[in-house]
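Posting here for the record, re: adenosine-5'-triphosphate.
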Amino acid sequence: MKTSAWILNLIKNMKGAFLLSFLLLMLEAGTNLATTGLQKWLIDDVLIKGQYDQLFKVVSLFAAAFISYAVLYTLSPYVMQRNELILIARIQEKLLYTLQSIPFSEYRKKQTTKYVHYFNNDALLIADVLAAQIPKAIQSLVTAVSLTLIIGYISPVLLVIVLWLSISYYVASKKMGLKTKVISREVQDRKTELLVHIEEGIASTREVVAYHRRSWESAIYNGLFEKYFKVVMQEGKLQNKISFISEPLKWGTNIAVIGYGAYAAMHEQISLGVFVIMYQFSFQLVTNYQQLFDIVIQLYNRKALFERVREVLDLEPEAEGQEALPVPIDEVCFEQVTFTYEEDTKPVLRQVNLRIPRGRKVALVGSSGSGKSTIAQLMLRLQVPDEGTIRVNQVELDSIKRSEWLNRLSVVPQEPYFFPETIRTNLILGLSEVSDHHLQKVLEMTRVDDLIRDLPNGLDTVIGERGMTLSGGQRQRLAIARALLKDPEILILDEATSALDTETEYFIQKMLDLHRAGRTTIMIAHRLSTIVNADIIYVMENGRVVEQGTHDELMKGNTVYKRLFTAQVMNNQNEMVSIP
Ligand SMILES: Nc1ncnc2c1ncn2[C@@H]1O[C@H](COP(=O)(O)OP(=O)(O)OP(=O)(O)O)[C@@H](O)[C@H]1O
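Prediction output follows.
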């Protein structure tokens, strides 16, 4: 989509509000010109020709023009600001929507802070261009054209001076604008880089202090600041150059107008009143050109921001799928699924076949990095297979309506995210209907009831950013409770109980087993004691499923599973022995 079409789409339903702001600006400019024009009448007719009876009329018109100007001068910024705020909301909403619908792999290409900067910097500046700068540029342009015509009517010589000025400004703004655009993008990119580093520096404070890496961190910061400093200074130099061109143009024109006007007045070619308004009109014209020039340079500057934001907004959203999800989900199958995170790297999953029947407990086990969590990501549709298919009741997962699928699935990830809100908000997470009975049952199953009993405000206790005021085990209990509240048909637990003490883990596992009738449970686990009762255990190595079966079946013969299980049992026994 072209930028102009994109802008028109953005200001959809706002054309009336935009027209109103243009109209107010035009009227504002008109009343301003009128206050100058009236001076000729006052000087030539009332003062010089002595038509004193007209004084009251002139003064009344002056008053009307000044009052109108004052009203319009306060009204137009109000309308423009309103438009600007609506546009900010629209751009930010579009950004948020796009970021939440593009493939996860795209999202991961940039750090989160970069996107945050697009929200609180770029969106604001783009809205300012559209709602304020462009209307003001049009106001300046229309005023400049009107003044050129008035001045041309007063004196052809002045018209030549004025045209010379317009052409010079046009050439200068085009030449300088292109240079500004390049350097401005560089400044914005370096600024974002610096902000990203600052945010990450703050987030990593614990590691930086613990590993005594403050000077290392400072060196990186200084390096980035130096780069930013250099481009800002280059931008400053360019701005000086621009002023070096535009200022002499402005004052040169003023001097030419005064010189010529005074000469013409002295030789009675023009009246005193005409000389006074001619000088003021010329001054206003130069000021308007200057404003227009500044805005054009500014627009070139901000063009870089449009490009940056549109690079995100133009990203292809992930296919949503249209097919309704059958009830109930009888089976999920992975058929020859191969998946690679990044191009030109080796596959993380290779020709994986899985069968996950309804109501069964299915376990994925294997060494670290063998691809277990990636399977959860594919189930969540955060990633799509490069080859092979995932089918739900024989229907391709991709063609199923995403919202329907995600409503029937819950995942407890290894590192669950918590909002800095109350425990209740974090548990319910926007679910529309959660009965007190269901909530209470889930709290008991996950032992969150024990946790909130000790908190001063119970469920309404606010937890810190990312749940930092809770222990790892407490966070895991909350995450399991959150997943169960949705009452999903498929529950995926990715190392979801790894931080719990043995007794709590045993209790929660027992509860999950007791209440899993009709629910498919997929468990990714290192602690094999938690999955011995699984209906199917898939053993993974290097992205492949190398074994499958029940615990008893897999314990027969020389299997990878048996090796893993025996090693864990031995390890546990050694630990028990070494405890005095
Ligand atoms: N976002 C990502 N981008 C690139 N590579 C990734 C990404 N996430 C995981 N990987 C790689 O994919 C491989 C499989 O990772 P995955 O998290 O699926 O393993 P896992 O079996 O769940 O490991 P663990 O038991 O340690 O959690 C690893 O080699 C990992 O480095």
